Amino acid sequence: MWWINPEYVVLVALPTFVLSLLATMYTKSTFAKYSRVASSRGLTGAEAAAAILRDQGVRGVAIERVPGSLTDHYDPRTRTLRLSDDVYHSRSLAAIGVACHEAGHALQHATDYSMLGLRSALLPAAAVGSKLSYVIIFLGLLMSRAPGRGAGENLILVGAGLFALMVLFTLVTLPVEWNASARAKTAMVRTGIVSEREGYAAGEVLNAAFLTYLAAAVSAVLTLLYYLWRAGVFGGRRD
Questions:
Q1: Do 221 and 167 form a contact (C-beta atoms < 8 A)?
Q2: Widest CA span of the chain, in angstroms?
Q3: Which of 9, 48, 53, 166 is the Cys-Cys partner for 126 at CB 3.0 to 4.6 Å?
Q4: Domain segments of the chain as ranges
Q5: Which secondary structure element, helix H or strand E, spans residue 80, and what is its range?
Q6: 7 annotated active-site
Q7: Helix axes 150-190, 114-144, angle to 10 degrees
Q8: The 73-75 sheet, strands edge to edge
């Protein structure tokens, strides 16, 4: 079966596992490192995010605390910036970097950043594609092992098409996250939230976090290519 297929393990499972593991470990270690370094001005993550929004004239964005670690996010539907326990009350450079990054998403929303709008539009389709694609591909893989494999491979292709919606979502996420970090790096220094040296340190946290999105995108692309290969798109049918 496909989940113990040596080709799947070598081409997809192993490299994506290693990439995700390394990206996650690096992000957590970098966040932990700068969580122990307090900013000279002494603002909390929530105060830093509010300062950036105020400086840019963005009104009506709520800033709330959300349980968990690194669960920070901006919800454009309710215009709510949610900061985790490790960020909301913390005065560390790591917390300020993450909070300002999420404020960067609020700035994107306020300025109608096109890629953010595209990602929001893709989200429902990507969610449906993610749930249905695995079921359809699994059925196609079962059928492809029986005589008359053409129907099975066609079914895999349909599932791969649905999975491609999720892949597109992960790819669009990359420029969205990079742009939010770029806005945060500039704004936190310009507004005096951190010094230039402190801004560089906080930026390291954001660069590390971006690697997790990059790893997710690479994983999604490799998985899609594998499904297409199993469907015979790249020449010949595979057992």
A1: yes
A2: 70
A3: 166
A4: 2-230
A5: strand 80-84
A6: no
A7: 150
A8: 62-66, 80-84, 73-75
* pLDDT tens for the 239 residues of the chain, in order: 444 578 888 888 899 999 999 999 999 999 999 999 999 999 999 999 999 999 999 999 999 999 998 899 999 999 999 999 989 999 999 999 999 999 999 999 999 999 999 999 999 999 998 889 888 888 887 776 655 556 777 888 888 899 999 999 999 999 999 999 999 999 999 999 999 999 999 999 999 999 999 999 999 999 999 888 877 777 654 44
SS3 string of 69-95? CCCCEEECCCCEEEEEHHHHCCCEHHH
Which amino acid is residue 57, in one-letter code?
G
What is the pTM assigned to this prediction?
0.88
Alpha-carbon radius of gyration of the chain: 21
Distance CA 220, CA 222 (A): 6
